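Data deposition worksheet. Section B asks for the primary sequence of the deposited chain exactly as it was used as input, without tags or linkers unless they were present during the calculation. Section C holds the resulting structure in token form. Section D is free text for depositor observations; keep each observation to a single sentence. Incomplete worksheets are returned to the depositor.
Section A, Depositor: J.P.
Section B:
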Amino acid sequence: MSTGTTPTPPPAIRFSVVTFDCPDPAELARFYGDALDLPVAYSTDDFVLLAREGSVGLGLNRLVDYRRPTWPDPSQEKQAHLELGVDDLDAAQARLLALGAVEPAVQPEPDRWRVLLDPAGHPFCITTVV
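Section C:
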């Protein structure tokens, strides 16, 4: 049975930014800006947003008492991580290492994806799967 009123559409919600805490947003912005070819869209001393109009951005937020993840040691768990799609694992890994990433000793499935650590210690993966 109709009530004669048009239902109100839900509000538009879109995924816009992932933000990582870190000790130095400018340093991490240089790394991810170069790695992902993303420009700085907004910047203060405590926050940097890397983004292009119409696409998802990456925010980097200063946290004074930031504690670096200790992956794979669970004493300071990772809170989130990025999965970056690449065409060539070896070439992408070499570029990211040159930009300042670090390769941890543990590599769960190195033929499918590689785990790297950004300059603030956040684990992220590169993969040919996505």
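Section D:
The first helix runs from residue 25 to 36.
The CA atoms of residues 38 and 73 lie 31 Å apart.
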